[in-house]
Amino acid sequence: MADAVTSQTLLNTEKKAIFKFTNISDGSGEANVKKIDVSTLTWAKHTITLSGAASPNFKIGEVLTVGAEKYLVVGFTAGASTVEVVGWDNTNKKATAIDASSSGSDAVSGGVSGSNTRTYSSIAEQDFELLVTKIQWICNGMTVIVEWDGSDAEKVIAQLSGNGIINMPGLEWPGIPNNATGDSGAVLGDIQFTTVGHSSADSYTVIMECKKQAPGYDYPAYEENASLGYRVDYVLGNFT
Question: Out of 51, 61, 174, 181, which could bridge 152 as a Cys pair, Cβ 3.0 to 4.6 Å?
């Protein structure tokens, strides 16, 4: 048996993500259950390492095809052997969760730059930072502990019981930052729930708003295209 839980993404843009989480307990409860994986949010920047210095230069804002996967270039320095990318749904022309299933020695081809002389070697997460800016909750019976995950030390964001709202829209209270430590297994900054005092038929509904912080999440740095030999374009749509 297990609690009946749901996770729903209400909004996921380059600057903000909003989620709704529910649980109707059978008495089992939840312990350190990951609810938000910061690396899978849209516009989460990753670094692809190539087999050598890229040639030709990539254009910032173009779509890279690596094996069967698609990525959007958000940052690149001329002649570098690495390129910053986000996950990309080329059919619907929108950012998506990163797909890191490309394989070593896969060919790399840009929608603008064309076939590259270098092949794919690996992909790595960057450092991602969220601010929790709003939590609204209804807890019937049980208590929910919301935590920042860290492989060395986890830190409590809030302990929720009854019902209420935490709202930090202004400059005086910009949000709750991550203060967990340790990133073994690339977990630092993920958000997890633990329930306390749960009994059968207890429940919770939690809606959480998070602000995405640069440089972990960001649009392509179009202004850098001038130094790469390409026209500076500020609108998505010229990446193919």
Answer: 181
